Amino acid sequence: MAVEDIKKIKSEIFPLEDCQSSKYRTYSILSYFIVLVVMGLPIWWYTTRVYRADLPLDDMSSLELESKLSKQLGIPLSLEYEVLITIVNPEPENLNLVVDATQISEALKPFLQKISSIAQFTVKSQWLYLVDIGVIPKKIGNEFVIGEELLPHIITPLEKNLWSHLSPRPCLNLVLYVPHCSSIPLNIYYKVGKETLKSPSNAMLSPSWGGVYILNPDKLSCRNKTFEPELQNIVSTFITQLKSMLHLKDHRNPEELRKLNKKKAKELIESSKRTLKSLAQLLSEINSIVISDEVAEKIKLALENLGYADVYFNANEIESALEFAKIAYNYSEQSFGDPSLLALLYFPDDQKYAVYIPLFLPIMIPVLMSLLTVWKKFREVKKLKDE
Predict the structure, then answer these.
(1) pLDDT level of residue 16 (50, 70, 90 thresholds)
(2) Which of 50, 79, 228, 282, CA to CA, is 20 to 30 A from 263?
(3) Which helix (H) or strand (E) is 226 found in, with range?
(4) What is the DSSP string of 178-194?
(5) pLDDT confidence of 17, banded at 50, 70, 90?
(6) Domain coordinates of the chain in residue numbers?
(7) Are strands 195-198 and 186-192 parallel, antiparallel or unpaired?
């Protein structure tokens, strides 16, 4: 086809008076397309994406766990504990209780120093007045009896008055309760088979909470309205309760302390593995969780120290395994509970599309339709040239 014929047909498709404006319209459409699609969409995607630092998710997901989670210690797992000594005097107006809580704290320190390898212990004390034990004992003969079935009801009224719940660390409660002079002696009885026997220590224990020691004043002290108990009995009872909570038989035996360290190391390792594995699963399922560089570094350090702890534990080097297990547990808990993980959790991808699509779609439809029209005209001209 001659060039003159092509120009003639082209002039019919694009009238002369519209050629210049059509040219500008084409440029305008292309510029809109470049700004909105070529530049706008990548910028929008980059600015609305969630930052996630590189993580060893495969290593975290491949951690092997025990088939059954077992609590080696009765107390909650932690690297720090508070030992709260509470002295309860229900009738201070009738009985002056002479007990120095500071001396009890000092007497407990040698024992706590012996087991300091498993955790850091902070000893605090408080006094409670006009607080009853919470149960009504039965009067049998010349004594008042608290049966085994009533022991769980002792903790609830005491717990309401303790400030142990204000501490961020797990609290081990050691309660010294001196009963009313009108209800002494107050003794605890346990069932052993078919027999009901008096508790030799007159104390009760809740492995995950703490213990209560009921110390009866003698009649002479009640008449004189002053009771000064022996400090050694109180301290020995509290130490026995702490050992029971820790499953420790003899804190003077190095082999028993080694067993305690081994239990603690094993539980720390297992807890760290479960935390990291749960975190890997969570991050894989929810893409809108932010992973900062700081959190990623904590996770890597936890995984690294966990590997060292596993190696030393399998080699039966318990002291080294315990130290690395502490570090791994600390970093794993910090990374799992980091507040930055929830920074954009409330704005997932589906909500992001729901917000931005109504903004982009009305603008994109005219641009795409105009671009399609330009493309059709361009194809027609090209087809004429080929003929």
Answers:
(1) very low
(2) 282
(3) strand 226-227
(4) ---GGG-SEEEEEEETT
(5) very low
(6) 3-50+346-386, 57-71+254-342, 80-246
(7) antiparallel
